[in-house]
């Protein structure tokens, strides 16, 4: 039905229609609305049928299993979001072909995360049948990974509860029967194991459970681990009660590993006073320290006791220290710190050094002549930023790594202005530079000891191929100083600049390229920002 032709003159004028005309046009409008509704319904039906056709014709149906397997291998072993769906189960249930591809993607089955069993939180006896069934499922899961390294994690829930093993009637949460059996058997060699505990007592009970599992220790996966992570979870106050006698320390229970991740309890919740924390030593056996190649530790106990460990890490290749918003080696009256400032510790095989959430006073007492990667996330007051920046340059110079350092990452520099002045020694081997600070709009790069008037050539960064300036603040002068500095290199490899902004950029990527780039050796891209979370929890 169409608009009545005999009323077309009303469309070209402003005359008031008669009551008869109003009634007639209303009937036409209702009929048109009905027709439209029927047509929309028909379109939806047709679209639904078309969708079915597209499902059948989907190219995903014709993907070879090798391609599907490559795609599935990108699924993270342990998703960062604990509420995320079980990706492995999801892809396995799509179709028979997808399940076949998933089963052939060995990396999907490399790891398992366990939580304490319900038996540990009640006075009920452990259910052997339940844990035997769980063990069999875990064994089948891990066996699908073939010869790839296998990882098991026993994590505590992120709530305010703590292990109730102080009650002799309750089972310690760390002695989860399925996990104990996995680590006490050898058919499935577990290479990496992470254990979350509430106290030193929990770790002792874990070690006792392994010994009581019926297998000689030398024939267990526990004693053949490559990597072990011990995480003390700070759910409440629990005094640090490890033995002062090194022969009875919990660390004598460690297996002979080459990689140790140690997440110590916070000073606030583990000690009655700062003085007690400063005087506390970790009695990790010297043979264990000698064998370590990778050492990751969260330490906010302060003082200089950490040096007792590092002095024996003669084969260490990678060291990560999370200071948890604290500092170490700062006591002016500490005789150990005074000696180390005059005669620093030399980590002769260290290739990678990462400092997290703290100051960099430790750089005053360390030397690493073979270092290739230096990664620092600051947590210092704005008044100490300049001092911290100078310490980085001094460490590089005194370690004599100017010609070997290939990657440098510096994060969370603070400034009262919008620009950070960053003088560094000449770094001829540096290939990758990352600067990531949320309150900075630009970096004034400079060569330590070299006068730069902003126009002449300079010797810095001849090998730099990737410069990242992340979390930049909005500014009309953004990246001008950085691009100019890179384009004025006396000798320079082609370099890619990657920038991201903490809020909307003033200019688009294309506009920045047009405004800033004048040479053929510097390229620019703008990527979406990933917020730098200052308050993030850090777990090994």
Automatic annotation (TrEMBL):
Q: Name one Pfam family in it.
A: F-box-like
| The protein's name in its UniProt record | F-box domain-containing protein
Q: Which InterPro entries match?
A: F-box-like_dom_sf (IPR036047), F-box_dom (IPR001810)
Naturally occurring in which organism (per UniProt): Ephemerocybe angulata
Domain (F-box) ranges: 62-114
């Amino acid at each position: 039905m169409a608009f009545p032709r005999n009323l077309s003159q009303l469309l070209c004028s402003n005359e008031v229609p008669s009551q008869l005309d109003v009634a007639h046009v209303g009937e036409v409008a209702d009929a048109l609305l009905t027709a439209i509704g029927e047509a929309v319904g028909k379109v939806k039906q047709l679209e639904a049928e078309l969708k079915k056709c597209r499902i059948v014709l989907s190219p995903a149906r014709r993907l070879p299993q090798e391609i599907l397997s490559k795609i599935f291998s990108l699924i993270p072993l342990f998703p960062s979001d604990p509420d995320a769906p079980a990706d492995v189960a999801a892809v396995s249930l799509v179709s028979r072909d997808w399940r076949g591809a998933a089963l052939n993607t060995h990396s999907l089955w490399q790891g398992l995360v366990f939580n304490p069993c319900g038996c540990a939180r009640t006075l009920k006896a452990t259910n052997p049948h339940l844990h035997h069934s769980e063990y069999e499922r875990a064994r089948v899961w891990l066996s699908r990974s073939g010869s790839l390294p296998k990882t098991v994690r026993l994590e505590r829930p992120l709530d305010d509860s703590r292990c109730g093993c102080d009650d002799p009637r309750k089972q310690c949460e760390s002695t989860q029967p399925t996990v104990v059996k996995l680590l006490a058997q050898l058919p499935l060699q577990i290479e990496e194991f992470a254990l979350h505990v509430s106290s030193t007592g929990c770790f002792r009970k874990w070690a006792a459970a392994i010994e009581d599992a019926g297998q000689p220790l030398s024939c267990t996966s526990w004693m053949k681990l490559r990597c072990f992570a011990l995480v003390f979870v700070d759910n409440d106050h629990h005094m640090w009660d490890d033995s002062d006698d090194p022969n009875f320390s919990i660390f004598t229970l460690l297996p002979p590993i080459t990689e140790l991740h140690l997440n110590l309890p916070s000073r606030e919740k583990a000690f009655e006073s700062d003085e007690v924390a400063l005087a506390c030593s970790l009695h990790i056996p010297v043979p264990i320290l000698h064998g370590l190649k990778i050492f990751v530790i969260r330490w906010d106990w302060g003082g200089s006791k950490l040096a007792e460990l590092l002095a024996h890490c003669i084969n260490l290749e990678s060291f990560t220290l999370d200071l948890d918003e604290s500092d170490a080696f700062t006591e002016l009256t500490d005789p150990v710190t005074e000696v180390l400032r005059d005669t620093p510790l030399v980590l002769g095989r260290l290739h990678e050094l990462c400092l997290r959430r703290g100051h960099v006073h430790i750089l005053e007492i360390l030397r690493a002549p073979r270092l290739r990667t230096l990664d620092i996330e600051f947590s210092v007051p704005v008044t100490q930023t300049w001092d911290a920046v100078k310490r980085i340059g001094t460490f590089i110079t005194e370690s004599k790594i100017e010609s070997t350092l290939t990657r440098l990452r510096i994060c969370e520099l603070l400034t009262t202005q919008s620009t950070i002045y960053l003088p560094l020694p000449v770094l001829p081997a540096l290939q990758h530079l990352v600067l990531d600070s949320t309150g900075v709009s630009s970096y004034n790069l400079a060569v330590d000891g070299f006068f730069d008037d902003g126009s002449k050539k300079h010797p810095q960064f001849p090998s730099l191929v990737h410069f990242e300036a992340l979390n930049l603040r909005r500014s009309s002068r953004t990246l001008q100083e950085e691009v100019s500095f890179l384009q004025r290199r006396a000798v320079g490899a082609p370099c890619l600049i990657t920038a991201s902004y903490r809020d909307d950029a003033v200019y688009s990527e294309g506009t920045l390229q047009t405004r800033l780039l004048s040479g053929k050796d510097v390229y620019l891209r703008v990527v979406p920002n990933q917020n730098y979370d200052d308050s993030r929890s850090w777990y090994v």
